Amino acid sequence: MNSTARSTWSGWDPYPLFVQGGSGSRLTDVDGNTYIDYLLGLGPMILGHRPPEVTRAVVSMIEDRGTVFALPTEDESRLVAKLIAAVPSLEQVRLCNTGTEAVLYATRLARAFTGRSKIIRFEGMYHGFSDGLYWSKHPDLDEAGPDRAPVAVAQGPGLPRGVGDNLIILPWNDAGLLAEVLEREGHDIAALITEPVMCNTGCILPEPGYLEAVRELTARHGVVFILDEVITGFRLGLGGAQGLFGLKPDLSVFAKGMGGGFPIAAMGGRRDIMALVADGTVSMAGTYAANGIAVAAANATLDILARQGTFESLFERSDRLREGLERLLSDARIPSSVVGLGPVFQVWFSEHPIRNYRDAARHASHTVFRRWWEGMMERGILFHPGAFENLFVSCAHSDDDIDQTLAIAREVVAELKG
Ligand code: PMP
């Protein structure tokens, strides 16, 4: 590996590889090693690397029409129509560039619509890097110890004083506590934001009835329910998690998978709320919002995802991998669970069930996770080195990739046991 690159790099710490390029389910590093990639650029490469149809759509956009933005285009209208057709709760949509921006717009809109200022968010969820919702350590849970991760909330170094003042940060999967807080303070709360499946604390599923309770309670108190589908959107189905769960949030945000590897995001929902954008009350800016390249990529990506059988085979392969890993670990009696839904999941090394970030911070072993990650990585299986992150499966992963991954996992599990 190039030593200048190594010494000037300030990126992710534990990564010992510099990427040369990717194709399909594989990444190759500058030393010529190839990996089966379950990191997928943190999720966007839902079709795998360099999906030919997306590449062709982008190249033809550039060659035939140029990188149009700042004025509406037919391509943009087509994309918005596809989003509205795919996701049940979307009545109107605006495009932007990143998940962070989409979240910022949604919370700004909710505050303008309700005239209230507070936002409820949940411990351990990540909704982007804007100061208003960002995470850092939770001072009350530091006792978690060196083998554990700190609980994430929006307070701490790097954030200006007062940034967290308008935030109420609650543990997830606790409808009783939410009901109490809304009863007491609902009149001050503009919005509640949550992921439908917790994907930024490893992977944690909503307990039965939890999201329905969130929907019902927020509606009762006039709080705008924002669903952050940046990871789950166009990954758990064309209609996102909300399509799968039959959930109807007031506003939703999407990014990552919708661009097939190109930066694009969307925010949308109820027409009466979105009307504040259309009439200029709330501004959504961004020079590159809805730029032609990203729109072309998203149009091509959604067309591919909409094809018959796409999600069925994605889920089939993902389930086979998840269940296979679960079996290997349980046969070896390693305290663990493999939690997730379809193409997004995480391996927890813990003997306790994990239902929210507090449980994860207290019980999940980072040491065992790290040994697992290193064993897999050394043998060419790439995923995020954090015990609080996810494995992503793409449409490009083949049955053969899954078989190879399980065969390698068998060796690594034997090492963990020994
Ligand atoms: N919301 C969620 C749930 C995310 O996972 C992320 C990114 N990991 C974001 C928002 C922010 O998206 P972006 O990185 O595109 O700004």
From TrEMBL:
Signal peptide: none annotated. Keywords: Isomerase, Pyridoxal phosphate. Its cofactor is pyridoxal 5'-phosphate. One of its GO terms (molecular function) is glutamate-1-semialdehyde 2,1-aminomutase activity. It is an enzyme of class 5 (isomerase). Its EC number is 5.4.3.8. It comes from the Bacteria. NCBIfam families: PRK00062.1. Belongs to the class-III pyridoxal-phosphate-dependent aminotransferase family. This is Glutamate-1-semialdehyde 2,1-aminomutase. It comes from Labrys wisconsinensis. The lineage of its organism: Bacteria, Pseudomonadati, Pseudomonadota, Alphaproteobacteria, Hyphomicrobiales.
